[in-house]
Write a structure and sequence with these properties.
By secondary structure, the protein is α/β, with parallel strands linked by helices. The protein has five helices and four strands; from the N terminus they run βαβαβααβα. Helix 1 links the parallel strand 1 and strand 2. Helix 1 crosses helix 5 and helix 2 packs across helix 5. It comes from Streptomyces sviceus (strain ATCC 29083 / DSM 924 / JCM 4929 / NBRC 13980 / NCIMB 11184 / NRRL 5439 / UC 5370). It catalyses: O-phospho-L-tyrosyl-[protein] + H2O = L-tyrosyl-[protein] + phosphate. Pfam families: LMWPc.
């Protein structure tokens, strides 16, 4: 049975698709594709059906990641099939925990940067949407840094599982 991780930001066009793409690449590099499923969603449905922001796609592709994506809204019913729900900032963390049907489901929600020891107390990945390309580059750096720690935890949790 697959271990399922879903990244969540506001509209699912900037931060969470970036985190999904980077983490999917890390999972593939680690040889865990058959064991780990990665996707993303937004807390709101404003961009449902849209591709990722062109700046997200540009930064991802420039760094060798896949930019293909279709935005969707997170649904509370998904908690039952997910193992980890990764919030990109504290607002998403609170919103997702409020949506969680059970305390166990609320416990599945974590902040992405909590997996980066160098992040210190700065655990939010800032929303780059209203800024320039440099904000998307900064977002990618934060996502890449946290993805290593997240991969270590997921690898530990999937040890002994069969694809």
């Amino acid at each position: 049975m697959s271990y399922r991780v879903c990244f969540v930001c506001t509209g699912n066009i900037c931060r969470s698709p970036m985190a999904e793409s980077v983490f999917r690449a890390r999972v593939a590099e680690a040889g865990l594709e058959g064991l780990v499923e990665v996707d993303s969603a937004g807390t709101g449905g404003w961009h449902e059906g849209d591709g990722a922001d062109p700046r997200t796609v540009s930064v991802l592709e420039e760094h060798g990641y896949d930019g293909a994506h279709t935005a969707r809204q997170f649904q509370p019913s998904w908690f039952s099939r997910l193992d980890l729900v990764i919030a990109l900032d504290a607002g998403h963390l609170r919103a997702l925990r409020r949506l969680a049907p059970t305390p166990e489901d609320a416990g599945k929600v974590r902040l992405l940067r909590s997996y980066d020891p160098a992040a210190g107390d700065e655990l939010d990945v800032p929303d780059p949407y209203y800024g320039g390309l440099d904000g998307f580059e900064e977002c990618l750096e934060m996502v890449e840094a946290a993805s290593e720690g997240l991969l270590a935890e997921v690898r530990e949790r999937t040890e002994g599982r069969v694809a």
